[in-house]
Task: inverse folding
């Protein structure tokens, strides 16, 4: 009897476990969308472009002799993302799935139109779109951007977007723009959202030959290559509508000031204080979050103190001035770097106060402690009353400066004697 009861119990357990597999799909039965492009269409509809990866290309399954295409690109007009995916399946043999999507690319035209939120709402209602998908704004149509993207060193499209965006995030020239953050900031109605800015169109008149390596937006970078696609800078969103762009340098500063982001180190150049015709290359290292102190005043301007601790590792001194062994020169360099960063920061802050009336640094988090309720905080109005009139002080504290493996550079006078 006990054995019979045990067998029935095991039978019921197996039945319960097996019910979880009723809707399973084999990998070979699915088409994996890596990038989704969205453009405006007629009659309040959207044109969706799906870049579908071929998982067998570049894998050990096909070997080195395969001539299959790495991806397939399909465009369809529809009201929303899910309907578009279902319609696209009329030409794609396998079931389209959005589970592995890396980026959503929207055209600048759509981003500035005010219709972006209508599309974005559909991404929150499906479990297929992950909250970590990155939002990219393209200068041209999203369909053109996706079709023009032709990387030569990485044939697998999912790996291309993964490596490209990860490296650009590490250097700070693009923001972290996942769709979860988009809704978090937009619905909070207090801060600006920064999306990745990119383009596949490069015109000669747009290229900037002068400027430091991060003072560009996509389309202005003086670089030649086979793939025309560039990622640099950010698209500024206020209340769900794109209002402007920030270059790579401004984007880096915005990332530095935002404690919700993980900023560690990035390579940059600074003016050589003792040889103005040269720049010094250095690695900016930030191991601790900046300290944000907001002193709210109801009847006078709020005071904000921002302290950014950082260190510098010098990578190259083209002027060959010996800063490493001369303490006086080293102090001049130290003050020059700190002052340079503070001037750029104040310029960006002034721009956000006067032109945008809001900030992309998420500083609204620090003023909320002064209010007992959400209605009280909303009535105070951070982005229209408090921040635009705030008195802001920025202090970049250079804690340590290093000079790499060698103390002194080659002496040109001795070399050319």
Result:
């Amino acid at each position: 009897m006990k054995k019979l009861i045990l067998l029935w119990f095991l039978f019921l357990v197996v039945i319960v476990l097996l019910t979880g597999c009723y809707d399973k799909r084999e990998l070979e039965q699915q088409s994996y969308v890596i990038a989704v492009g969205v453009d405006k269409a007629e009659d309040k509809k959207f044109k969706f472009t799906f870049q579908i990866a071929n998982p067998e290309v570049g894998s050990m399954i096909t070997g080195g002799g395969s001539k299959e295409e790495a991806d397939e690109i399909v465009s369809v007009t529809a009201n929303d993302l899910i309907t578009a995916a279902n319609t696209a399946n009329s030409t794609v043999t396998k079931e389209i799935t959005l589970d592995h999507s890396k980026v959503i690319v929207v055209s600048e035209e759509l981003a500035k139109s005010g219709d972006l939120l209508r599309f974005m709402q559909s991404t929150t209602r499906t479990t297929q779109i992950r909250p970590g998908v990155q939002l990219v704004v393209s200068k041209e149509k999203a369909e053109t951007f996706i079709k023009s993207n032709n990387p030569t060193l990485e044939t697998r499209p999912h790996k291309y977007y993964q490596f490209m965006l990860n490296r650009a995030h590490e250097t700070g020239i693009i923001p972290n723009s996942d769709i979860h953050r988009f809704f978090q900031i937009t619905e909070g109605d207090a801060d600006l959202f920064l999306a990745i800015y990119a383009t596949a169109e490069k015109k000669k008149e747009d290229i900037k030959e002068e400027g430091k390596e991060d003072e560009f937006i996509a389309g202005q970078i003086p670089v030649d290559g086979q793939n025309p696609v560039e990622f640099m800078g950010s698209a500024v969103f206020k209340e769900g509508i794109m209002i402007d762009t920030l270059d790579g340098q401004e984007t880096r500063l915005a990332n530095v000031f935002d404690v919700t982001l993980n900023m560690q180190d990035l390579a940059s150049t600074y003016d050589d204080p003792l040889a103005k015709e040269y720049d010094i290359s250095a690695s900016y290292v930030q191991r601790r979050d900046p300290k944000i102190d907001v002193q709210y005043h109801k009847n006078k301007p709020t005071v904000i103190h921002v302290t950014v601790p950082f260190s510098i590792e010098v990578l190259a001194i083209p002027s060959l001035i010996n800063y490493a062994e001369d303490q006086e020169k080293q102090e001049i360099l130290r003050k020059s770097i700190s002052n340079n960063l503070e001037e750029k920061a104040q310029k960006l802050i002034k721009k956000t106060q006067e032109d945008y009336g809001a900030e992309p640094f998420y500083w609204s988090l620090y003023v909320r402690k002064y209010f007992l309720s959400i209605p009280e905080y909303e009535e105070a109005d951070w982005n229209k009353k408090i921040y635009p009139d705030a008195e802001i002080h920025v202090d970049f504290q250079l804690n340590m400066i290093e000079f790499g493996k060698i103390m002194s550079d080659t002496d040109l006078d001795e070399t050319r004697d």
In short: The first helix runs from residue 2 to 18.
